[in-house]
């Protein structure tokens, strides 16, 4: 089976050291990612660095989780975990939370994960500094997404529960854009489409371009809070989003993915590949088919073998009939298994185009 349980081998006369791991090239990672896809194995892993958060977003309650910094893995744990995951092949790894920048060792974590995988970071931007952005990019971050939902500062701050959130977020975009070390590094603005911000999308795309950044969007899913309050319910959105995707080169979301937003709002999208195409690792190493099933772990990255982890993910995926989300991690990954979606995704995945054009 292509890619599955491929065990990294050192070059002759050496051991499997961290120095050797650092030699893995971008082209080698892309080949290993292709092997994972061709073998029908997971390509995306959401690795939650922490569920702690300095914001109190009204459409999310992750921040309410009772987590302690001392319970979270060390950088050495991430080194071992990333190498272990490499036995399945290279993965697109989303380093998220919570707010991942609450961990002061994020650059070291990015470096550890980036030796084998493509690490992405999602942040609210509040804790970003010029120096931290430089250190994270230099560590080998593949891309960063800064969350901004409104072009209006007051509306964004209100929804995020933090005065000044909008200003800090755009400043973070500037820091990360200026800190690019490699041509393939990407800076995104990502928005959650909710009941009141469809008209904000085009201004956000334009503002992103002015900041030399891409733009992405995903629909709000009520699994986060159990409340439908923030679900967009004011008519179709897919035609408008696809139109904007065609109009603006820096709008990076897959067009096929965007075309299914209305289907999601009308009752959900069946055929979820959680557990087979993507999975979640929480801040203690527990593995689940997705982040919303984090309380129903199937294994632990540090205690169980990759054979056990893969088998249990597969077993959990077989019985998965959920259609209650269309998050970026699900939709964009599943587009890689759709013929049209795959063709539209290839430029994003395999071309080195780090800077967005206005």
What's the gist of this structure?
The protein has helices at residues 18-21, 26-38, 75-85, 106-114, 130-138, 153-160, 165-178, 201-210, 238-247, 255-258, 261-265, 306-318, 328-334, 339-350, and strands at residues 44-50, 92-97, 118-123, 143-147, 186-193, 214-219, 278-281, 286-288, 299-300. By secondary structure, it is α/β, with parallel strands linked by helices. A nine-stranded mixed sheet has the order 6-5-4-3-2-1-7-8-9, sandwiched between helices.
Describe the protein in words.
This protein has 358 residues and is an alpha/beta fold. It has one domain (39-350): TIM Barrel, CATH 3.20.20. It is built from 14 helices and 9 strands. The chain has a 9-stranded mixed sheet, with helices on both faces. Strand 1 (44-50), helix 3 (75-85) and strand 2 (92-97) form a beta-alpha-beta unit. Helix 4 packs parallel to helix 5 and helix 5 (130-138) crosses helix 7. The chain is globular. The protein starts with 17 loop residues before the first helix and ends in an 8-residue tail after the last helix.
Q: What is the helix content?
A: 25-40%
CATH homologous superfamily annotation = Aldolase class I
User: What is the ordering of alpha helices and beta strands?
Assistant: HHEHEHEHEHHEHEHHHEEEHHH
CATH class: Alpha Beta
Order of strands, widest sheet = 6-5-4-3-2-1-7-8-9
- Overall mean pLDDT score? 87
**Largest sheet: number of strands, sense, barrel closure:** 9 strands, mixed
The CATH architecture comes to: Alpha-Beta Barrel
Secondary structure tally, helices: 14
Task: Tally the structural domains.
Answer: 1
- By CATH, the topology is TIM Barrel
Spatial separation of the terminal alpha carbons:
43 Å
Number of strands: 9
Molecular shape: globular
Strand content: 5-15%
Alpha-beta classification = alpha/beta
Query: Low-confidence parts, pLDDT < 50 over ≥5 residues?
Result: 1-23
What is the gyration radius calculated from CA atoms? 19 Å
């Amino acid at each position: 089976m292509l890619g599955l349980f491929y065990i990294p081998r050192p070059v002759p006369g050496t051991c499997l050291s961290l120095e050797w791991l650092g030699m893995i090239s971008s082209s080698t990672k892309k080949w290993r990612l292709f092997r994972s896809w061709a073998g029908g194995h997971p390509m995306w892993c959401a690795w939650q660095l922490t569920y702690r958060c300095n914001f109190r977003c009204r459409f999310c309650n992750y921040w309410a989780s009772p987590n302690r910094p001392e319970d979270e893995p060390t950088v050495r744990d991430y080194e071992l975990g990333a190498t272990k995951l490499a036995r399945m092949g290279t993965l697109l790894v989303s380093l998220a939370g919570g707010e991942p920048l609450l961990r002061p060792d994020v650059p070291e974590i990015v470096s550890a994960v980036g030796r084998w995988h493509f690490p992405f970071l999602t942040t609210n931007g509040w804790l970003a500094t010029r120096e931290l952005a430089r250190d994270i990019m230099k560590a080998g971050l593949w891309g960063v997404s800064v969350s901004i939902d409104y072009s209006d500062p007051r509306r964004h701050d209100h929804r995020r529960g933090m005065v000044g959130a909008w200003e800090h977020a755009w400043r973070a975009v500037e820091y990360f854009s200026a800190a690019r070390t490699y041509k393939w590094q990407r800076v995104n603005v990502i928005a959650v489409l909710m009941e009141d911000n469809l008209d904000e999308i085009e201004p956000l795309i334009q503002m992103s371009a002015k900041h030399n950044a891409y733009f992405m969007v995903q629909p709000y899913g009520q699994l986060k809070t159990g409340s439908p309050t923030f679900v967009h319910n004011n008519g179709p959105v897919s035609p408008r989003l696809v139109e904007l995707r065609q109009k603006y080169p820096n709008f990076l979301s897959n067009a096929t993915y965007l075309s299914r937003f209305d289907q999601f709002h009308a009752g959900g999208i069946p055929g979820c590949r959680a557990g087979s195409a993507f999975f979640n690792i929480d801040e203690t190493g527990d593995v689940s088919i997705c982040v919303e099933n984090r309380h129903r772990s199937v294994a632990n990255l540090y205690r169980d073998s990759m054979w056990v982890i893969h088998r249990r993910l597969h077993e959990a995926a077989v019985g998965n009939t959920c259609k209650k989300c269309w998050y970026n991690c699900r939709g964009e990954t599943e587009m890689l298994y759709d013929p049209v979606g795959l063709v539209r995704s290839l430029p994003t995945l395999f071309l080195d185009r780090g800077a967005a054009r206005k």
